[in-house]
């Protein structure tokens, strides 16, 4: 791939003209694929799938989230998430509770065992995250994350 090509600006430009190395969705998918691969062995050792890992990760930051919101944050289809949560509940890593305001909605919480499992996985996730930014200074990293947030605002379908 030729990495010296100018970054395209024309919306009508075809992928072949643009090149995969300049197509942001392709690059983001490759990055996430490599990130997931970097933590795969530890996930397997803990008996976790990618949707389960993502769920535990989100719950470590937003415990007690509604299932429909968890699906968005974990980037998992609701049917896949349901199976992942069933397995996590069966293993004692999460618990579900009916929402106090809307009895039709369910909230998900980490159990102590779930938090311990997440804490065992986190160092590997953190190492993979650090590896992504190796050789990138703080200003570049801040600018990159700000750009990603702008892209998220441009394409999001939810208020979060």
From TrEMBL:
Q: Does the keyword Ribosomal protein apply?
A: no
Keyword ATP-binding found:
no
Q: Return the Pfam families for the record.
A: MarR_2
- What InterPro entries does the record point to? HTH_MarR-typ, WH-like_DNA-bd_sf, WH_DNA-bd_sf
Report the GO molecular function annotations: DNA binding; DNA-binding transcription factor activity
Question: Under which name does UniProt file this protein?
Answer: DNA-binding transcriptional regulator, MarR family
Mind listing the UniProt keywords for this protein, alphabetically? Answer: DNA-binding, Transcription, Transcription regulation
PROSITE patterns on file: HTH_MARR_2
Question: What parts of the sequence cross the membrane?
Answer: none
- Segments forming domain HTH marR-type: 21-153
Superkingdom assignment: Bacteria
């Amino acid at each position: 791939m030729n990495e010296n090509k100018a970054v395209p600006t024309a919306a009508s430009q075809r992928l072949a003209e643009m090149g995969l190395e300049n197509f942001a969705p392709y690059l983001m998918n490759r990055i996430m694929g490599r990130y997931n691969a970097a933590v795969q062995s530890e996930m397997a050792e803990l008996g976790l799938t990618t949707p389960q890992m993502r769920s535990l990760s989100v719950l470590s930051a937003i415990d007690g989230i509604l299932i429909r919101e968890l699906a968005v944050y974990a980037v998992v289809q609701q049917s896949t998430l349901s199976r992942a949560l069933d397995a996590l509940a069966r293993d004692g890593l999460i618990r579900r509770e009916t929402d106090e305001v809307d009895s039709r909605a369910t909230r998900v919480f980490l159990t102590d065992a779930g938090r311990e499992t997440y804490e065992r996985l986190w160092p590997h996730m953190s190492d993979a995250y650090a590896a992504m930014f190796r050789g990138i200074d703080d200003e570049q990293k801040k600018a990159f994350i700000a750009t990603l947030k702008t892209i998220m605002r441009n394409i999001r379908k939810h208020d979060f």
